[in-house]
Design a protein that fits this description.
This protein is α/β, with parallel strands linked by helices. It contains 15 helices and 11 strands. Helices cover 40% and strands 16% of the residues. A 7-stranded mixed sheet has the order 5-2-1-6-7-11-10, with helices on both faces. The chain binds S-adenosylmethionine (SAM).
Length: 435
């Protein structure tokens, strides 16, 4: 039996459960078997099965709306459409937002897919200077990842993008982004492109055929009733004022995890390629700044603005859950190599998550289910039970915790001495209900 600390708050009952045999529900291991979902997904996504399970269990009907405040690559919104339910998503990362559009509103026009495929198969290498397209930093990075020949073909894709109709631009971007990934020589090491670890690169034209074949198959098999009733908003879910009070009846989501993925860095290749940003600084300003603060790469001024974030959290909550963690992280920093300022992440992360939880409370109807998947963290060996702390924020905001389930043990892969806290790590499914 997995032992969790039970909250001493008497406002809610928290049950603990055995580690489930099925450790796969929360992760996207089988996503490549699912139409549309498989067009573009990433390791940080949860599974379509999980979303389907939550929708079916909630017995929502076609008037109901499902919300995902951290939409990512659209798993919740795509699956909601498959289940014939309306949905609303928020995503603050521009690349994820753009790519998701192609999955959330898939074309039903097979000829259009053929057209894009033929267009790309007939493309000729760009012959000008790459310096006219990309900034110096972007070019240095891209040159490490993609061979000169493939990069010349990919560069031509940028040139023809403005000839694509608005309606099909996101599909074009999705296809070319997949081709970029396939042509890349560098391994994706966990989540980040690692220029020093090589993988087999597939030629540009072969990649186009592989990617389009999959899309073509799915579009051909789409039933006529796949009619998307989804709405995806670009921006931070800390403020979801576009969504009316008590208008949604189910939330299925997975926020950024503390000290896990830097979503800006993991898309560095794509951000440079599509020219969302031309330097590390621009990535910070144009992307990172708009995301929940969860890694030490967050903008320095945000991390330094501790008073602002601290004042948003109640004294009692900070005293009970956060202050000792911050003290431990400060102490560890003094003796650990790297001098990482992990302690500066705690107030911003939980204050921002509190904003999202409050917004969800406003938007959800009384009695609505909220399903949230999150991992806890061990920074410099200091264990941070994120799932417990977020559950407490939910309780304080007006949710009952129905159940907390450990979906998957984390940390075994990197059980190093320096990470003494990591043996407690888990990925948790919090099931709460709006009071
Ligand atoms: C764990 S991922 C969600 C993955 C998603 N469940 C899927 O299957 O694709 C978290 C997402 O939250 C986004 N995000 C981070 N901060 C945000 C914010 N303040 N508002 C909205 N989205 C944010 C990240 O860009 C990332 O896509």
């Amino acid at each position: 039996m997995l032992q969790l600390n039970l909250f001493d708050s008497n406002t809610s009952l928290i049950e603990t459960q055995k580690l489930p045999n099925n450790q796969k529900l929360s992760t996207n291991i089988f996503t490549n078997n699912y139409p549309i979902h498989r067009w573009y997904n990433f390791i940080a996504g949860f599974s379509p099965e999980f979303v389907r399970f939550c929708i079916q269990e909630a017995k929502v009907n076609c008037d109901d709306i499902v919300i995902d405040p951290f939409s990512g690559l659209g798993t919740t919104l795509v699956e909601a459409t498959f289940q014939n339910v309306s949905s609303i998503g928020f995503e603050a990362h521009p690349f994820f937002y753009d790519i998701s559009q192609a999955k959330i509103f898939p074309t039903s026009d097979i000829q259009q897919v053929k057209y894009l495929e033929n267009l790309l198969l007939s493309i000729q290498p760009y012959t000008g200077s790459f310096k006219a397209i990309w900034s110096e930093s972007a070019l240095i990075f891209l040159n490490k990842l993609v061979s000169e020949d493939n990069l010349a073909l990919l560069a031509s894709c940028l040139g023809i993008e403005n000839t694509i109709s608005q309606e099909h631009k996101s599909l074009f971007r999705l296809i070319v982004s997949k081709v970029l990934e396939k042509t890349s020589l560098a391994q994706t090491d966990g989540i980040y492109k690692a220029p020093t670890t090589l993988k087999k690169s597939i030629s540009f034209y072969d990649s186009v055929s592989i990617v389009c074949k999959q899309i073509y198959e799915d579009v051909e098999n789409l039933q006529d009733n796949f009619y998307s009733k989804a709405k995806l908003n670009f921006g931070s879910s800390e403020n979801m004022e576009l969504v009316e009070n008590e208008s949604c009846s189910l939330c299925i989501t997975s926020p950024p995890y503390l000290n896990n993925f830097d979503f800006a860095e993991m898309t560095r290749m794509e951000l440079y390629f599509w020219r969302y940003a031309g330097s590390w600084r621009e990535i910070t300003e144009k992307v990172r700044r708009h995301l929940i603060v969860n890694t030490t790469t967050a903008p320095t001024d945000l991390k330094r603005n501790q008073d602002f974030f601290s004042s948003a959290l109640s004294e009692n909550f900070k005293l009970k859950y956060l202050n000792s963690i911050i003290e431990n992280l400060k102490n560890e920093r003094k003796i650990r190599p790297g001098k990482k300022d992990y302690y500066l992440l705690i107030y911003p992360y939980f204050a921002q998550m509190q904003n999202v939880i409050r917004e969800l409370h406003r938007i959800l109807r009384s009695g609505s289910n909220l399903h949230l998947i999150v991992s806890d963290a061990a920074l410099y060996g200091v264990y941070i039970p994120t799932h417990e702390i977020l559950s407490q924020l939910m309780i304080e905001t007006g949710f009952n915790i129905i159940n907390i389930e450990n979906m998957r043990k984390r940390g075994e892969r990197w059980l190093l001495k320096k990470r003494t806290g990591s043996n407690k790590l888990g990925e948790y499914h919090i099931h709460a209900k709006r009071i």
